């Protein structure tokens, strides 16, 4: 019963304060709420390298890698490749409350592409 009261209160506060702004500025709260919803009472069920669909949609092309990092945090993984003289750095994040991953790729320190990948099946 306490679990459901906390969930309801969390949802009310979330919408009252401005939704995505709360998620973007309080990743530890996001982790705790998601953990409780998943049944993990201590709130440690979600990794910090996950972002919400609202955060993902809010990322604009040409955003600097520094601004993206400050907005959504460090990625789970990074991969860098140089092809035909173009250095591309891609970051990977999990998806909050879903299965799959987001890929953000930067060229010359600016966001050039973003993609969502879901498991096939």
Low-confidence stretches: 33-46
Average predicted confidence as pLDDT = 77
CATH topology assignment of the largest domain:
Beta-lactamase Inhibitory Protein, Chain:B, domain 1
The shape is globular
Q: Tell me roughly what share of residues is in helical segments.
A: 25-40%
Please tell me the total number of domains.
2
Total strands: 5
N- and C-termini, Cα separation = 35 Å
CATH class of the largest domain: Alpha Beta
List the secondary-structure elements in sequence, H or E.
Answer: HHHEHHEEEE
Number of helices: 5
At CATH level 2, the architecture of the largest domain is: 2-Layer Sandwich
Look at the helices and sheets and give the structural class.
alpha+beta
Structure summarized in a few sentences:
This protein is of the alpha+beta class and about 120 residues long.
Question: Can you give a write-up of this model?
Answer:
It is a single chain. 38% of the residues lie in helices and 28% in strands. The protein folds into 2 domains: 47 residues, no CATH class; 73 residues, Beta-lactamase Inhibitory Protein, Chain:B, domain 1. The radius of gyration is 16 Å and the shape is globular. Strand 2 and strand 3 form a beta hairpin. Strands 1, 2, 3, 4 and 5 form a 5-stranded mixed sheet that branches. It is of the alpha+beta class and 121 residues long. The longest helix is centred in the first third of the chain and has 16 residues.
